[in-house]
Amino acid sequence: MHRIATARLLSIVGHPALLMPVAVAFAASGTGAPPQLLRVALSTAVAVAVIVGLVSLWQVRAGRWAHVDASHPHERNQLNLLLVGLLCAAAALLWALGQPSAVAAGPLLAALLVLLAHALRRWLKVSLHAAFALFAAALVWPHALGTLGIGLLAIGVAWSRLVLRRHTLPEVLTGLLLGAAFGAALRAGLA
């Protein structure tokens, strides 16, 4: 039972809706970015997370989804398409507000990550928890402690998705691979 409780805790702490705003705030504050940039980037990340959370709760309460995790194929399809739309809108808003292109690139790459996971849905249910955990680690790079901490959390999140039987090993490994690849693309764009 302790193992399941630990897995649930890691899955919640490493949930993309919680982890990404924290990573955005950590990354923006660590670069010496102006406070306005930090507020805009963080507000955008929090807005996406809140909207996704509210829609998920609404779907569960309406009886259309079994769980806020959106584990069933039709639930996941709806969630993925919502995420892609919200992340693209966030990128467009950041660009329209005159934020640096590197700031707008984050949500755009996140949208592409979700879109690729959605495209792969016929073959496997990619773990977006694992993908976004490694993406977040790349976001806070080169801050060694932040990157290490989130990287270790990504390993814990991957383990939790297996223990909770939300994903298979290939689905978790694919998520980690995609998160690392999109994180590397983000870092390359920031360099």
Structure description:
By secondary structure, this protein is mainly alpha-helical. The protein contains eight helices and no strands.
List keywords for this structure.
single chain, 191 residues, 8 helices, 0% strand
Number of strands: 0
Oligomer: single chain
Q: Please describe the biggest sheet, giving its number of strands, its sense, and whether it closes into a barrel.
A: none
**Structural class computed from helices and strand pairing:** mainly alpha
Q: Beta-strand percentage? A: under 5%
How much is the radius of gyration in Å? 16 Å
Q: Helix count, per DSSP?
A: 8
Describe this structure in a few short sentences.
The chain contains 8 helices and no strands.
Task: Tell me the layout of helices and strands.
Blueprint: H1 2-13, H2 16-30, H3 35-61, H4 73-96, H5 101-119, H6 128-140, H7 144-163, H8 169-190
Helix pairs in contact: 1-7, 2-3, 2-6, 3-4, 4-5, 5-6, 5-8, 6-7, 6-8, 7-8
